[in-house]
Specification:
The complex is a heterodimer. Chain A is globular. Chain A is an alpha/beta fold. In chain A, the strands form three sheets. A seven-stranded mixed sheet of chain A has the order 3-2-4-5-7-6-12, with helices on both faces. A five-stranded mixed sheet of chain A has the order 9-11-10-13-14, with helices on both faces. Chain A contains twelve helices and 14 strands. Chain A starts with a strand and ends in a 5-residue tail after the last helix. In chain A, 38% of the residues lie in helices and 19% in strands. By secondary structure, chain B is an alpha/beta fold. Chain B is built from twelve helices and nine strands. In chain B, the strands form two sheets. Chain B has a seven-stranded mixed sheet, sandwiched between helices. In chain B, strands 6-7 form a two-stranded antiparallel sheet. In chain B, helix 1 crosses helix 2, helix 1 packs antiparallel against helix 10 and helix 5 packs parallel to helix 6. Classes of the chains: A alpha/beta, B alpha/beta. Chains A and B meet through helix 3, helix 4, helix 5, helix 9 and helix 10 of A and helix 5, helix 6 and helix 12 of B.
Chain lengths: 330, 372
């Protein structure tokens, strides 16, 4: 199986879907001539032309809304928002329109569109360019929010998102674009709404998504060397949320830690912890713990940025605290 | 027509025209004029009854009426072909009716019933009819502009320009011209050369805020200048002038792929919504507005022109009253959506784990363990 980057996997999925369906069009800032800020759309302008790979002015509300209207007439637009921070300029169109139009008009028109956008900090981009706002959208009925962690998932989920008849937000991550992984050749279509147990284990469950699922897998391997069996649940989809896979895992392990890139209060982890409290309460040996970002506008200075973001060390510390609190024998 | 419209390329100073638009529609066939009167009368009757049904609590939420705007509404809809697409704001009952949507089903939507045009999910502000290409009333000010612009973008993938090409009309109120979505949308339509006509229905007030108070350029049809979109102002009380101005812009959109901006000077006879008594208006202003009511003016104009006699007019009015009475009865008889229909339109593509919890339900369905 060929090993490719997350970036390449996204590119391949876009290209394959554009070849398969002429209704798939791309909209976004600098996606054509510049080939995308993160080069996901490299070469596509040349191959498909400026009608289908459409550079937009800096008008997030305008072009996200335009994608909605085009989708209502049967197109399948894929919008790139340069980073999730800029999605705030389009939030009325996303929340009040994309998410509402199918249901509010009694199912008369689907809105088959995709918004691809990366979140993530750690690049010294300071407070306004380093946020993880996925929970804003995961909160909204009518949207689907997926967050692939591997190149294989990125390809299969983007393909599924494009073929889905609802507005799908595909969360990418700045720090994942260059990561590599095996990706099956040919068509792969993920099932939106399903989590995956990516590392099986018996002693403790770590729940993550996107970048945090990658860190969780790495940490699980390190604990395996010490004889601790960590199970990793990769959410893959934030809306819908696969609560059953989470609770089934925690019922088995009795311990749960959530690693999330967003801020702690009201974050993704809060929803997971509440789900576990309801679906696995009698099986828990310790309170559910969350590892999330420090609640400050992320500073520019490297020394402060580094400590504000959740990382493998913080996860390891909390896992050890969980194990010690429950007198886990090592 | 030159006497009734102003263009943004004209050097003449723009001034609001308050003469009731009573020019004889000499170039309009009698049947057409009578049909306009019939539609205007239906809208008037529908809106009066909607207001009444609201006060009787048959209609909930917000309810914004087209009272006073009937000539604008009918003129705009007469310019639109069945193959064109329409997006509007939340003051859209009249547009729905003039677009040919069923009167009973529109009223049923206001009543929140299953037979409503949006299956009871949208209400007064969110009327929709895919078949008639009425792609929605939108409750957020300016929210309809970007999707309407995108609909016009989609049309460019369907085929080239030409006299038979489809076009989009996007209606909005005067207050909308101050919102970012207005400017972003006009810019996109200009650079992408989209077949769309933006229509500002200028009734002088955004709720209680006057256009002069809210807009740096109160001649709203000029606001397309930044995007080189030609603008034109028309007397919204003159149904024929409205139709002709809209048709000309739509024609340019079809054949040249040039967007247009049309401003119809209109009048809101009542408050912003049914519950607004419009106390911010002086008695003089209220009296003045009464003289600007397009219905009696158009009726008198048609009678004077010999197109309509009092008997025919009375018959049209009685017909409208009957039709609206039947619509109210239909709406009242239509069932409320059943509780088990709550999640029916949650997603267009169903996926695993789509949440179906009712308030107070556990987050995991009974027996879920067996499924994992």
């Amino acid at each position: 199986m060929p090993e490719i980057t997350y970036r390449q996997a996204l590119h391949d999925a876009l290209r394959a879907e554009m070849m398969r369906d002429e209704n798939v069009v791309l909209l976004g800032e600098e996606i054509g001539l510049f080939e995308g800020s993160y080069k996901i759309t490299a070469g596509l302008l040349e191959e498909f032309g400026p009608e289908r790979v459409r550079d937009t002015p800096i008008s997030e509300e305008g072009f996200v809304g335009a994608a909605i209207g085009a989708a209502m007439l049967g197109m399948r637009p894929v919008v790139e928002i340069m980073t999730i921070n800029f999605s705030l300029l389009a939030i009325d169109q996303i929340v009040n329109h994309a998410a509402k139009i199918y249901g509010m008009f009694g199912g008369q028109t689907p809105v088959p569109m995709v918004i691809r956008t990366p979140g993530g900090g750690g690049q010294q981009l300071a407070a306004t360019h380093s946020q993880n706002l996925e929970v804003w959208y995961a909160h909204i009925p009518g949207l689907k929010v997926v967050a692939p962690s591997t190149p294989a998932d990125a390809k299969a989920m983007l393909t599924a998102a494009i073929r889905d008849d609802d507005p799908v937000i595909l969360l990418e991550n700045l720090s994942l674009y260059n990561t590599k992984g095996e990706v099956p050749e040919g068509e792969q279509v993920a099932t939106i709404g399903k989590a995956a147990v990516t590392v099986p284990g018996t002693d403790l469950t770590v729940v993550g998504y996107s970048r945090s699922a990658v860190i969780a897998r790495d940490v699980a391997r390190r604990f395996a060397d010490q004889g601790v069996s960590i199970e990793v649940v990769d959410l893959a989809s934030l809306r819908p949320l696969d609560r059953q896979t989470i609770c089934a895992s925690v019922r088995k392990t009795g311990r749960a830690v959530i690693l999330e890139d967003d801020w702690l209060s009201y974050g993704v982890g809060a929803e997971i912890a509440a789900t576990i409290a309801e679906g696995a309460f009698d099986y828990l040996d310790a309170p559910v713990r969350r590892v999330a970002a420090a609640e400050v506008p992320l500073p520019y200075a490297k020394s402060l940025e580094r400590i504000a973001l959740p990382d493998a060390d913080a996860l390891i510390k909390v896992i050890n605290e969980q194990l010690d609190a429950t007198r886990f024998a090592r | 027509m030159a006497g009734r419209t102003q263009t943004s390329r004209s050097r003449r100073p723009a001034k609001q025209q308050d003469d009731g638009g009573a020019t004889a529609p000499a170039d309009v066939p009698a049947e057409t004029s009578i049909d306009y009167y019939r539609q205007m009368t239906l809208i008037r009757e529908f809106e009066l009854r909607a207001g009444e049904m609201y006060t009787r609590a048959k209609i909930g939420g917000y309810c914004h009426l087209n009272l006073g705007e009937e000539a604008t509404v009918v003129g705009l809809m007469a310019a639109l072909r069945p193959t064109d697409y329409l997006f509007t704001n939340y003051r859209e009952h009249g547009y729905a009716l003039a677009r040919g949507m069923d009167t009973g089903r529109v009223m049923a939507e206001l009543f929140g019933r299953v037979d409503g045009v949006s299956a009871g999910r949208g209400g007064s502000m969110h009327l929709f009819d895919a078949e008639r290409r009425m792609l929605g009333g939108y409750g957020i000010v300016g929210g309809q502009l970007p999707p309407a612009t995108g609909a016009a973008l989609a049309l460019t993938f369907r085929g080239g320009p030409g006299p038979d090409a489809e076009a989009v009309m996007c209606q909005m109120g005067d207050g909308t011209t101050n919102i970012g979505a207005f400017h972003e949308s006009l810019n996109l339509a200009a650079i992408w050369q989209l077949p769309i006509v933006y229509v500002i229905v200028n009734n002088g007030l955004g709720m209680a805020t006057t256009v002069e108070h809210a807009s740096g350029e109160p001649d709203l049809y000029k606001r397309g200048c930044s995007y080189r979109i030609p603008g034109e102002r028309v007397d919204g009380n003159d149904v024929t002038a409205v139709r002709q101005a809209a048709e000309a812009m739509l024609q340019r959109a079809r054949t040249e792929r040039r967007p247009g901006l049309l401003e119809a000077m209109s009048h809101r006879l009542r408050g912003h919504s049914v519950v607004d008594p419009a106390r911010y208006r002086s008695r003089e202003e209220t009296d003045r507005l009464r003289t600007l009511d397009p219905l009696p003016a158009f009726r008198a104009q048609l009678v004077e022109a010999g197109v309509l006699d009092d008997d025919t007019a009375a018959h049209i009015e009685a017909e409208a009253a009957e039709k609206v009475a039947a619509a109210v009865a239909f709406a009242d008889a239509s069932p409320e959506p059943a509780p088990d229909e709550l999640f029916r339109f949650a997603y267009a593509t169903d996926v695993p784990n789509a949440p179906r919890m009712m308030p107070g339900d556990p987050v995991l369905p009974a027996g879920w363990e067996a499924a994992v």
